[in-house]
# Entry
Amino acid sequence: MAILNPWPAPGLSLTLESRFDSPCANVPRELIVGQMLGHYRLVEQISRGGMGVVYRAHDEHLEREVALKVLAPANLHDAGACKRFHNEAVILSKLNHPNIIAVHDFDTEDGIDFLIMEYVPGQTLSARLETGPLTEEEVLQIGRQITAAVQEAHNLGIIHRDLKPQNVMLTPRGRVKVADFGLARRSPSAVDTAATTDVTRELEVIGTLPYMPPEQLRGEPADSCSDIYSIGAVLYELATGRRAFPETHGPRLVDSILHEAPRSPSTLTQWVSRPFETVVLKCLEKEPARRYQSATELGVDLKHISTSTT
# Structure
């Protein structure tokens, strides 16, 4: 269940945002395989969600495979969705890390805005989970890489706000790529005075419900500790094969996140050690002050667990 904020995130780049002043194109038609957008030829549709559609495409200039993302036709008239799409391009342009999907370009062709990213072969963590919980070694390796990606974003004052298995790619060689920064924004401490009004207006619920920390459900602004909570929710699911709060009824799920403790992972998966459980449950603390205060701290503990178990 995704809950979206109608207010756009504060601007991160005047240079790029100057290109995004106009609304999304008025083109409700579907793209077709074989079609050209700029010098990119659509090869196949590789994913489709409520917000956007991603194609594998061929860059005819540089002779390489890329991922081409467009808004889903249903969102072309949604000004908020258009802003979030542009926002993703702006934010990705600032990030350069081996565990974050790289952006190559943002352009418009025949009135269609599209984002060009590196093509990542493999599957999402949500697809990987369809076969059941992961092994200890897999979870620790993935957890360290997600944390490194989030640490890089936080170092630049960027909060992801929508970390979940569907937004993390896993290559056949085990490399993690964190994707989908469409809901990301700058942390409150990184926003200048001119953006204060926008930040205040952002006190809305935004993200994907099962992975949202209590403070976001209360309408408070997300910070680095909010992403730490979401990492904990992802690690819990990777280790156990189920969500920390598995309720499917919206109000009941919200109440559980706000007031209930998650079931101990060690009661669900035999390999879960006490150190790993301690790390995950610390990430999932209700109060941000009781969680890890940085991705760096979390990364150190995940590395320590990995070292102590080898």
Observations:
- The two ends are 38 Å apart (CA to CA).
- The first strand starts at residue 2 and ends at 3.
- The chain has ten helices and 13 strands.
- The CA atoms of residues 124 and 245 lie 21 Å apart.
